Each structure stands twice: as C-alpha cells, then as structure tokens.
C-alpha cells in the first residue's frame, strides 16, 4: 500500500472520529443517537474512493472495538457492536465502499448523480444494515424499528447535501485528488 493511501485512510478515520465530538441527540423510544459521523462516512467514500474509504471506516470501527471512545457521546468498546447501534457502525465500511464505487463509475458526475450516489451509499446502505440489527438488538418489530429510524432521514439528507458540496469544493481545489 502506498503512502498516499495510508494517509487518506488515517485522515478519514480521524475525521469521522472528530465528527463524533458533536454532541449526539438521542431519539426517544429507540435509543439511537443522531450524530454527525455519517458525514465522515460519506466524505470518506466520496473523496478517498471505495477501497480507501472502506479501509478508513474499518480502521475507525477497529479503534472503537478496542475501546477508544470515538463514537458520538464518547462511546467505545466491543459492546457497542452488540447493542442497538451496532449495525449502523458495522455498516460504515460498506457504505463508504458503495459511495466510492458509485462515484467512480461517473467521475465527473453532476450534482444530482453525486447526491444519489452519496444518499444510496450513506443512507440506504447504512439503514439496510442498521435497522434489522436495531430490531434484533432492541427486541423491536422490524416495522417499528424502520418507522423509528425515519426520524433520522431529514438529518441524513442534509448530511448528504453537505457531503456533495464539500466533495465538489475539494475536487475543484485539488483536482489531482
């Protein structure tokens, strides 16, 4: 692995950890917090690419697993992955990979295509893994877990828009990226 890849992986893992410093807002009834960290996942996939973005998120969740308090609210440890939010965290590498892969198919994509790629990878993929996990871990019917998770969609859509704007700005400023 080249030095540039190692730097990108470490950078996006650190960015995702830093986004955990924003205080989480917990949705009553389901116990899953609204955090800024999925923005880090979206940026990792859109700026670092599928492979490096996914590896950055693997590094991030590995650091969480060994006990570093990197998740929003200062949470960390292997137990996180067995709780209601575990599926959402486990989905981070998959989501970053999906975003990077979709954007690689059209490197000069317009705003709409970029938004759809980031939303599909950063929202749909995370929910597709996180909601069933939430249902099992919290003992909720899948429908109730799904409906409860819809409270997060407006914030996630805002994060997807921010990720598109940030990605386009960074790519304009650093075309070699």
Automatic annotation (TrEMBL):
Belongs to the BioY family. Keywords: Cell membrane, Membrane, Transmembrane, Transmembrane helix, Transport. Pfam families: BioY (PF02632). One of its GO terms (cellular component) is plasma membrane. One of its GO terms (molecular function) is biotin transmembrane transporter activity. It comes from the Bacteria. It comes from Salinihabitans flavidus. The chain crosses the membrane at residues 30-47, 54-72, 78-103, 115-134, 146-167. InterPro entries: BioY. This is Biotin transporter. The keyword Transmembrane applies. It is found in: Cell membrane. It is a multi-pass membrane protein.
């Amino acid at each position: 692995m080249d030095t540039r890849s190692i730097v990108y992986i470490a950078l996006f893992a650190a960015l995702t950890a830093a986004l955990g410093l924003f205080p989480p807002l917990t949705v009553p009834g389901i116990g899953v917090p609204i955090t800024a960290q999925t923005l880090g996942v979206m940026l990792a996939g859109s700026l670092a690419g599928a492979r490096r973005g996914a590896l950055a998120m693997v590094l991030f969740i590995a650091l969480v697993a060994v006990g570093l308090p990197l998740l929003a609210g200062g949470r960390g440890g292997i137990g996180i992955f067995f709780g209601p939010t575990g599926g959402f965290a486990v989905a981070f590498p998959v989501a970053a990979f999906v975003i990077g892969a979709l954007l690689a198919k059209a490197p000069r994509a317009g705003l709409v295509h970029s938004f759809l790629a980031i939303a599909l990878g950063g929202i749909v993929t995370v929910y597709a893994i996180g909601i069933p996990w939430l249902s099992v871990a919290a003992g909720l019917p899948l429908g109730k877990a799904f409906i409860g998770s819809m409270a997060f969609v407006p914030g996630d859509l805002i994060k997807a828009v921010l990720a598109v704007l940030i990605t386009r700005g960074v790519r304009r400023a650093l075309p070699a990226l």
